[in-house]
């Protein structure tokens, strides 16, 4: 029972007219008064228990979303955290308000948070969908219905805010303190705002439906013709996306439906003229269908019970929000949107302004350095370039890191502790910008640049690369990342002794003499060319379908290399199994995820964090490493079975002999002291040591062979004149499918004949020079003495030295038109190979040069000769070229193949 109300006129000390149409009641327990009293802040009597329970649930959801945001590293999910935390805050205030119903602050705070929380959730839906469009790129472009993905979220978030302002304006005009005519206009304005918002939501749903339809249509295309490259085939009846985009799409549908259709309790006709925001007829987030019901249902409990019953607020407002947040927690965007294009490039106006300032600072510093250099010209020869140290610490004054000068002529010892910091170069590596940043440093500062206290970069071959790499400097811990099964292999061996031990086991299998005489390699090459690769291309050609070169070249390269190493019957068949190719490439990409930075550059920090329960590596790195290592062991076990049969006197077909595996197996069996790399060579150790070595060799098909082969074919498609010259050069080889046949390996031209075609070799060399990506190949100066590099003496012991192949192959001092693909540069006027060319450093030099150099040239020659003996190639979907980082999983090159008549 409420006390008998007393008629009072409220005057809160402001300019609003006093209320004369209500009574002010004496508060009862917890400050409760009737809903129509002047001093009422609620249309009902709020209960404590459901408010605490609801706040707890939203608190749990907030914690879950926070953990997922950190785990998946998705900064844009801050919006959903705002939605969940504001809902939690709203019901915490509601719980306090239930115990003090006269405290206007609790009521107002609850309504404000309750009002705005759905706006954050809607923004999250918009932002997530925009990133789905950017990531999956339906139609090959990051847009839907001509709207760029980057603008999708912005447009609809702005529209959401605008309609909120319209509805808030209408709500204020419809408050209980205003005249009836103004109130009627306010209701109309509010309804207009809801209608406009509904229109935007309908448009957004249409865009989602368009994306959905286009994605499903893409699944029906052939795997090498997919636009976007983000899908994979699961079975023969229909295609399924490589990433589970459908689950996320339906999650967004469900969340949008829950927060759009659910009703909101209307705090109608609030009595306090100070509560102008809460005097609006509901939340800014539409909850449209039920909201319209509320507006047309009346303004008293008898006419419309919805605003006057607390249960409706929980059942038809709080619960749908809980449901939406739960759905988005179960199917979090971070589970689907993974990889280099899962986020928009973060380069806004602020970043551009910052870069502009940095460029000005660099120019100013360079000017000062030139001035200082002129003053010291008496002791520095003009014909020698100066070596400068380079380091940068964000937000630091230039003097704090210094760009000091080291006099190359006077051979002063390198001062390294006083100048540079490792922060700059580590930052560039973490963000994948090392090549670009260090290249810019070389262009400004010369051929030897200091990038950290104990680290330099070189870009000169004669005085730099030859001194470091031909001398066999040891490798740093960076290469431990390339061990497999925890076992060292040739590439991951840091000391010269370990590398020599690994290399000796297998080097003869890759010698030019062995390869040219190998019946196994000849038959493997013929089989994969004429029974796998060319039939796949003929299928695409017959159906007029474009070919995605990168995946096809990865597949055929992996097949040829693995089948020579393991034997045809023991090796994989990627070329005819695009699903396996896509799966393997994705696991390989996860194995070498960008987070590998921590293992390569900061391994001690990584292991220290793991000891306290913090793992900076994503779970998929470990899962994919396990998958790909198990895959390798399965094929090695097949080769082991062939090896044992051969040991028992059985002779398999030549193409099934695991040439490289057999040599590794024999080397491990014939160890003199039963040890390999200071470990007892047990049967299991031998098994995984062999697998680690083979994995190292096989990875070359992904990192170099397949990548360069795909770009070589694409360059030829871009340059019809050079393509015609190559087809003319190989026309006499008799490699057309009608001339060779699919079963006669002896009909292939000899390796010596392939090698003698000068224009073919020029195409191969130019394509290797133009390799579109590059990786650092660090070495460590001897630990017991200082050395001289690029004319600079006193480089301290233990200094890391880096050189990118890009620096040598794109150096304008060594090459004319360094960024143009010009195979003719390798030929003299008579068409013969030139002998005076700058060094091609595609496979490094010195005692640690790539062991597979000759095999690469062998396979390159046969594949290019076979392709252009059978097909004309032209560009398809040119818009995909250069859109992604070359060699990344998202990179794509499309061409059309048309057959050449025999």
Automatic annotation (TrEMBL):
The keyword Membrane applies. Pfam families: p450 (PF00067), RTA1 (PF04479). One of its GO terms (molecular function) is iron ion binding. It is found in: Membrane. It is a multi-pass membrane protein. GO terms for cellular component: membrane. Residues 365-378 have a biased composition (Basic and acidic residues). Residues 1-28, 341-383 are annotated as: Disordered. Keywords: Membrane, Transmembrane, Transmembrane helix. Its main location: membrane. The chain crosses the membrane at residues 51-71, 78-97, 109-130, 151-169, 189-209, 250-269. Residues 347-364 have a biased composition (Basic residues). This is RTA1 domain-containing protein.
């Amino acid at each position: 029972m409420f006390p008998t109300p007393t008629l009072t006129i409220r005057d809160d000390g402001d300019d609003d007219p006093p209320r004369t149409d209500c009574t002010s009641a004496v508060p009862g327990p917890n400050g409760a008064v009737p809903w129509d009293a002047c001093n009422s802040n609620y249309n009902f009597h709020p209960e404590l228990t459901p408010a605490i329970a609801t706040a707890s649930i939203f608190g749990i959801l907030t914690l879950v979303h926070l953990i997922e945001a950190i785990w998946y590293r998705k900064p844009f999910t801050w919006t959903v955290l705002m939605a969940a935390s504001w809902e939690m805050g709203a019901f915490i205030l509601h719980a306090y308000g239930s115990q003090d119903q006269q405290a206007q602050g609790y009521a107002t705070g609850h309504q404000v948070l309750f009002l705005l929380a759905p706006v954050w959730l809607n923004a999250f839906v918009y932002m997530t969908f925009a990133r789905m469009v950017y990531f999956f790129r339906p139609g090959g472009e990051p847009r839907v219905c001509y709207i760029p993905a980057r603008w999708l979220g912005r447009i609809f978030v702005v529209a959401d805010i605008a309609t909120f302002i319209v509805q808030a304006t209408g709500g204020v005009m419809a408050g209980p303190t205003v005249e009836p005519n103004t109130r009627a206009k306010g209701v109309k304005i509010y309804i207009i705002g809801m209608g406009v918002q509904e229109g935007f939501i309908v448009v957004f749903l249409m865009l989602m439906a368009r994306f959905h339809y286009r994605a499903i249509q893409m699944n029906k295309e052939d795997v090498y013709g997919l636009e976007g490259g983000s899908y994979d085939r699961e079975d023969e009846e229909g295609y399924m996306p490589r990433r589970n985009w459908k689950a996320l799409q339906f999650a967004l549908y469900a969340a949008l439906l829950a927060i759009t259709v659910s009703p909101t309790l209307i705090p109608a006709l609030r009595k306090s003229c100070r509560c102008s925001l809460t005097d609006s007829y509901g939340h800014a987030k539409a909850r449209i269908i039920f909201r319209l019901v509320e507006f047309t249902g009346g303004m008293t409990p008898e006419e419309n019970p919805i605003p006057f019953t607390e249960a409706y607020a929980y059942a038809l407002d709080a619960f749908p929000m809980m449901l939406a947040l739960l759905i988005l927690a179960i199917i979090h965007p971070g589970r689907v949107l993974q990889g280099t294009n899962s986020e928009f490039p973060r380069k806004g106006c602020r970043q551009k302004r910052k870069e502009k300032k940095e460029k000005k600072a660099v120019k100013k510093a360079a000017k000062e350095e030139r001035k200082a250099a002129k003053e010291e010209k008496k002791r520095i020869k003009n014909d020698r370039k100066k070596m400068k140290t380079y380091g940068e610490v964000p937000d630091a004054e230039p003097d704090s890191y210094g760009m000091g000068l080291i006099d190359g002529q006077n051979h002063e010892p390198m001062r390294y502790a006083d100048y540079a910091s490792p922060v700059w170069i580590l930052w560039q590596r973490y963000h994948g910008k090392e090549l670009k940043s260090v290249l810019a440093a070389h262009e400004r500062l010369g051929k030897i640049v200091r990038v950290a206290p104990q680290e330099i970069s070189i870009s000169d071959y004669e005085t730099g690369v030859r001194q470091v790499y031909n001398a066999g400097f040891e490798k740093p811990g960076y290469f431990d990342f390339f061990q497999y099964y925890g076992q060292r292999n040739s590439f991951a061996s840091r000391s010269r002794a370990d590398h020599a031990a690994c290399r000796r086991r297998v080097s003869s299998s890759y010698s030019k003499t062995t390869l040219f005489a190998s019946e196994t390699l000849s038959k493997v090459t013929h089989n994969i060319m004429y029974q796998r690769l060319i039939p796949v291309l003929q299928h695409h050609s017959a159906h007029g379908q474009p070919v995605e070169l990168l995946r096809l070249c990865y597949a055929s390269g992996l097949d040829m290399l693995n089948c020579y190493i393991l034997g045809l019957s023991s090796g994989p068949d990627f070329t005819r199994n695009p699903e396996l190719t896509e799966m393997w490439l994705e696991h390989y990409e996860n194995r070498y995820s960008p987070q590998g930075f921590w293992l390569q550059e900061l391994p001690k920090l990584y292991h220290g964090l793991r000891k306290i329960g913090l793992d900076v590596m994503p779970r998929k790195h470990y899962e994919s490493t396990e998958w790909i290592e198990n895959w390798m062991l399965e094929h090695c076990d097949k080769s082991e079975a062939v090896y044992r049969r051969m040991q028992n006197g059985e002779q398999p077909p030549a193409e099934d002999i695991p040439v490289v595996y057999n040599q590794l197996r024999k080397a491990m069996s014939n160890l003199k002291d039963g040890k390999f790399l200071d470990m007892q060579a047990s049967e299991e150790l031998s098994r995984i040591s062999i697998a680690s070595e083979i994995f190292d060799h096989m990875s070359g098909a992904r990192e170099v062979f397949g990548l360069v082969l795909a770009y070589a074919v694409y360059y030829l498609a871009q340059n019809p004149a050079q393509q015609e010259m190559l087809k003319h050069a190989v026309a006499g080889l008799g490699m057309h499918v009608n001339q060779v046949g699919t079963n006669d390996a002896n009909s292939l031209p000899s390796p010596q004949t392939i090698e003698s075609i000068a224009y073919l070799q020029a195409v191969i060399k130019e394509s290797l020079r133009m390799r579109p990506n590059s990786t650092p190949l660090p070495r460590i100066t001897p630990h017991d003495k200082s050395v001289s590099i690029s004319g600079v003496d006193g480089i301290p012991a233990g200094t890391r030295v880096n050189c990118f192949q890009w620096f040598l192959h794109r150096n304008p001092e060594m090459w004319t038109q360094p960024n143009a693909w010009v195979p003719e540069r390798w030929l003299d006027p008579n068409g013969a190979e030139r002998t005076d060319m700058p060094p091609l450093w595609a496979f490094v030099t010195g005692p640690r040069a790539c062991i597979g150099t000759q095999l690469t040239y062998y396979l390159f020659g046969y594949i290019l000769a076979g392709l252009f003996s059978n097909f004309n190639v032209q560009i398809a979907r040119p818009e995909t070229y250069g859109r992604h980082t070359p060699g990344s999983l998202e990179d794509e090159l499309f061409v059309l193949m048309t057959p050449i008549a025999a």
